[in-house]
């Protein structure tokens, strides 16, 4: 089988590295997705372990269609009965069509559903399907007349780890937060600081990575109810994930924010994630912080645009200038990793980044500015 791990644009290489580390085979990278081959054990493993993917799909088919009749016949060729139970619910829940002759999403949805019903009639010898059982959501992606048909195995997005019951304004997605930590190459023996942590997502993801806590081990997936996947695969994969957690390492992760309510929520989230004891939270303006070590890594999603004061350019520029001054004065030999949508960040920060990478945070185009420090894993003197 071929599986698809969908992801936010810009994170494809990160997801590829995750797939490699999980031992998946024949990995291929495309815009917004990573494909790999495997069996149901790999599908379960991907759902439980992938940190930066949004969902994991079974790739049911890929074909070209210029007419609705071609679309109907290609959908009907798929052996839907090999996957969907007789009472399964099978909505065509998401359709995308770009630069294609078949552009009406509602018509594509209708034709796909009709073809699926006709195919399932052949398997189950009945005319009406109650659809009151397990969920088998279908996603259709069409670009330049090439259709990709996918069966969603995740259900709720993988970014929903289950620990963030409460949040404040404009939280960063868990998947993106994990990607920032992985891109930074931060290691568990280094000091970690998020001086504008909000509700703590980046620090929590860092602690989970350091402890090798599988992000999906404590949540459920729609494919757990599929009869084609033996229950023991889920049980064994979770048991293995729990047994591989690193409980012995001592972490030095610090997270602070000027907003007291955000820190209260962050502590609650960290407790739900099982990493409260690994993170030192404090209510403090970042300018009042003192360096906790000679070397370390700052990973931060600072306020920007409408999240920062009135969103005026001069206010934003001054904010980042002061943050740059703080970093150079108090964290001189540290590495800094900053995600922001502010185009003049490097100018305000008064230093060109060692590297930067275009990413998207909640649909907002951002850059992840990386400044390599002089620590053990550093890059400059």
Protein model, in words:
By secondary structure, this protein is an alpha/beta fold. The chain has helices at residues 12-21, 40-49, 68-77, 105-124, 174-184, 201-210, 231-243, 260-273, 313-330, 345-349, and strands at residues 2-6, 25-30, 33-37, 55-64, 92-98, 138-143, 146-152, 192-194, 253-257, 279-283, 297-300, 335-340, 355-361, 364-371. The protein has a seven-stranded mixed β-sheet. The chain has a seven-stranded mixed β-sheet with strand order 10-9-8-11-12-14-13, with helices on one face. Helix 2 packs across helix 7 (231-243), helix 3 packs parallel to helix 4 (105-124) and helix 5 (174-184) packs across helix 6.
Concise structural overview:
The protein is an alpha/beta fold and 381 residues long. It is 32% helix and 22% strand.
Shape: elongated
Instruction: Output the strand order for the largest sheet.
Output: 2-3-1-4-7-6-5
Summarize the main sheet.
7 strands, mixed
* Helix and strand composition category: alpha/beta
Number of helices, where a helix is a run of at least 4 consecutive DSSP H or I residues = 10
Helix content: 25-40%
Q: Average pLDDT across residues?
A: 92
| Alpha-carbon distance between the two ends | 49 Å
Query: How much strand content do the residues show?
Result: 15-25%
Report Rg: 23 Å
How many E strands? 14
Q: What order do the SSEs take from the amino end to the carboxyl end, as H and E?
A: EHEEHEHEHEEHEHHEHEEHEHEE
* Low-pLDDT regions: 306-310
């Amino acid at each position: 089988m071929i599986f698809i791990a969908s992801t936010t644009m810009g994170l494809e290489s990160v997801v590829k590295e995750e797939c490699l580390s999980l031992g998946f085979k024949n990995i291929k990278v495309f815009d917004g997705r990573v494909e790999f081959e495997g069996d149901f054990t790999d599908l379960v493993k991907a759902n439980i372990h992938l940190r930066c993917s949004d969902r994991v799909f079974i790739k049911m088919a890929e074909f070209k269609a210029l007419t609705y009749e071609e679309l109907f016949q290609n959908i009907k060729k798929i052996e839907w009965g090999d996957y969907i139970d007789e009472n399964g619910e099978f909505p065509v829940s998401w359709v995308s069509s770009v630069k294609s002759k078949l552009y009406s999403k509602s018509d594509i949805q209708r034709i796909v559903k009709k073809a699926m019903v006709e195919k399932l009639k052949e398997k189950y010898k009945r005319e009406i399907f109650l659809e009151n059982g397990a969920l088998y959501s279908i996603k259709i992606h069409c670009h330049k007349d090439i259709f990709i048909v996918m069966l969603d195995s995740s259900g709720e997005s993988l970014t929903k780890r289950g620990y963030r019951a409460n949040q404040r304004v404009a939280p960063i997605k868990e998947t993106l937060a994990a990607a920032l930590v992985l891109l930074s190459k931060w290691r568990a023996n280094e000091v970690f600081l998020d001086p504008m942590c909000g509700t703590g997502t980046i620090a929590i993801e860092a602690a989970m990575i350091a402890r090798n806590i599988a992000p999906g081990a404590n949540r459920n997936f729609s494919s757990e109810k599929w009869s084609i996947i033996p229950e023991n695969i889920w049980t064994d994969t979770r048991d293995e994930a729990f047994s591989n957690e690193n409980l012995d390492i001592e972490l030095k992760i610090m997270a602070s924010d000027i907003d007291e309510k955000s820190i209260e929520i962050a502590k609650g989230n960290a407790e739900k994630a099982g990493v409260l004891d690994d993170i030192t939270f404090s209510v403090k303006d970042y300018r009042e912080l003192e360096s906790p070590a000679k070397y370390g890594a700052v990973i931060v999603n600072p306020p920007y645009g409408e999240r920062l004061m009135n969103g005026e350019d001069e206010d934003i520029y001054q904010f980042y200038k002061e943050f740059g001054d703080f970093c150079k004065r108090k964290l001189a030999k540290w590495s800094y990793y900053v995600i922001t949508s502010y185009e003049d960040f490097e100018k305000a920060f008064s230093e060109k980044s060692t590297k930067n990478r275009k990413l998207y945070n909640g649909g907002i185009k951002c850059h992840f500015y990386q400044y390599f420090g002089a620590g053990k894993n550093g890059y400059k003197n």
